[in-house]
Specification:
By secondary structure, the protein is of the alpha/beta class. The chain is built from 14 helices and eleven strands. α4 packs antiparallel against α12 and α6 packs across α8. This is Aspartate aminotransferase family protein.
Length: 466
């Protein structure tokens, strides 16, 4: 086989064609997939061909077979979980990342992507008002961003109790206590599981899911050894923020490391609108967020920020003779995340921030929150609908009276397909949970969403009467 640049042209042109057709369909297509996974599995159920196929034909076949099973996550009418769309500059930059095919682990080997990611990290610290000397690593997602912050914290607090976890592991180590709010996200629990730390000790939260500082103080008073405290910037159901300054002060007074899980909510720090709610955020030790959520870059792209660069390098830096270091005093990208070989996923972040600028980023974040409030107001005006949370950011949790009715309305809404909102359980009640995270969501999309919920509610009410 011979490398010929012209061999890429036709398959790339096919990719552009099908990608453009897909993007063109987003404003009008149903959000839900047209075919279930079993049907897609049948479509792809073919033996491996004996002979090669033309790349352009492969791309066309892939696009045609996959299209019925694609969910329109990039639609402005997608409100399920917390999955943003993709900004044009970020998507285009991501295509370049694939074409460049750089292993973004070492500054010496791939200086362009390293420089781009370092600048993106600087912009993030500036926008979110976090310590300028912090290390910024780009991970596969929010779970691994939490993993990075907690791993750095694990090593740091154990070192403060004369234990080197890198050398000696966890067997025989001082008991490490992890404290987290009662509504801690499952990604934190997963990260703690990966780190061998077990489940956290849960601290009481208020009705909006915010950790109670008084309960945190009581919990810290019972801890005798090393401790990690996990706070939340953006509750999954209410969008609310833990009281940062007081909680962090209490934790630091007790010698604990403070990690902030801010998968979607950390971006609120870019806007003065949430300055009071996030007061003291910058005094934590590590932070995690997910750029594919609020910032709207392509999957996958978590962001881990650690104030103590030495702590994160201690957790992840690898040393071997064939790694050529550009500067021994400067962290390589692979020193800050749990990967040696890694995609240059920070490049689309640079493109998103370069295209938005400071004012555009603030407008993006505030616009998502404005749409969440508009949805809450529209849904709250429907008969029998109760908005359960204070709509402080981008999350809305709704009940339709009973749990049974809420579940049936959610199912009817998903079957309708005009929008996508996910069901959940919050504070022991079934809810329709709405996450506004797409840059393209418009007032028209909000109106369509309210109408879709009204249709589902009407259908369920009619069925109850029959």
């Amino acid at each position: 086989m011979t490398f010929r640049p012209e061999d890429y042209r036709e398959p790339l042109e096919q990719a552009v064609r099908f990608a453009t057709e897909w993007l063109d369909s987003l404003p009008s297509r149903p959000v839900k997939p047209r075919a279930p996974v079993d049907q897609l599995a049948v479509a792809f159920d073919r033996p491996l061909p004996e002979e090669p196929a033309g790349p352009a034909a492969v791309v066309a076949e892939l696009a045609r077979l996959a299209e019925p099973g694609l969910m329109a996550i990039g639609s402005g009418r997608f409100f399920g979980w917390v999955m943003g769309g993709t900004l044009p500059a970020a998507l285009s930059a991501d295509w370049l990342v694939s074409a460049w095919d750089q292993n973004g682990g070492l500054r010496y080997a791939t200086p362009a992507t390293a420089a781009i990611e370092e600048r993106a990290g600087t912009w993030i610290l500036d926008l979110l008002h976090l310590p300028a000397s912090s290390a910024v690593g780009f991970t596969t997602g929010g779970t691994m961003a939490n993993f990075v912050g907690l791993a750095a914290g694990r090593g740091a607090v154990l070192r403060s109790h004369d234990w080197d976890v890198n050398r000696d592991g966890l067997t025989g180590a001082p008991r490490l206590t992890v404290l987290a709010g009662a509504e801690v996200h499952s990604s934190v629990i997963l990260a703690l599981r990966y780190l061998g730390l077990g489940e956290p000790t849960l601290v009481a939260a208020d009705p909006q899911g915010r950790i109670r500082s008084d309960a945190l103080a009581d919990a810290l008073a019972t801890v005798a050894g090393p401790c990690l405290v996990v706070l939340q910037a953006g509750n999954l159901h209410s969008g609310s923020f833990d009281p940062m300054r007081e909680s962090i002060r209490l934790a630091h007074d007790a010698g604990a490391w403070v990690h902030v899980d801010g998968a979607f909510g950390l971006w609120a720090a870019a806007s003065p609108r949430w300055a009071s709610a996030l007061d003291g955020l910058d005094s934590a030790d590590s932070w995690a967020t997910d750029a594919h959520k609020t910032l709207n870059v392509p999957y996958d792209c978590g962001i881990a920020v650690v104030a103590d660069t030495a702590a994160v390098r201690s957790a992840f830096a690898a040393h071997t003779s064939y790694f050529v270091r550009d500067d021994a005093g400067t962290a390589d990208p692979m020193d800050l995340v749990p990967e040696l070989s890694r995609r240059a996923r920070g490049v689309p972040v640079w493109a998103a921030l370069r295209s938005l600028g400071r004012t555009g980023t603030v407008a993006l974040v505030e616009g998502l929150a404005d749409n969440a409030r508009a949805l809450a107001e529209g849904l709250g005006s429907l008969p029998g609908v109760e908005v359960l949370n204070d709509v402080v950011f981008t999350q809305v949790s709704v009940s339709f009276g009973t749990d049974d009715r809420t579940v049936r309305v959610t199912q009817a809404l998903i079957e309708d397909g005009a929008v996508w909102m996910s069901g959940s359980v919050w504070s022991g009640r079934a809810v329709l949970r709405i996450s506004v995270s797409n840059w393209s969501t418009s007032a028209a999309d909000v109106a369509v969403a309210v109408d879709a919920v009204a249709r589902a509610l009407t259908a369920v009410t009619a069925a109850e009467r029959d």
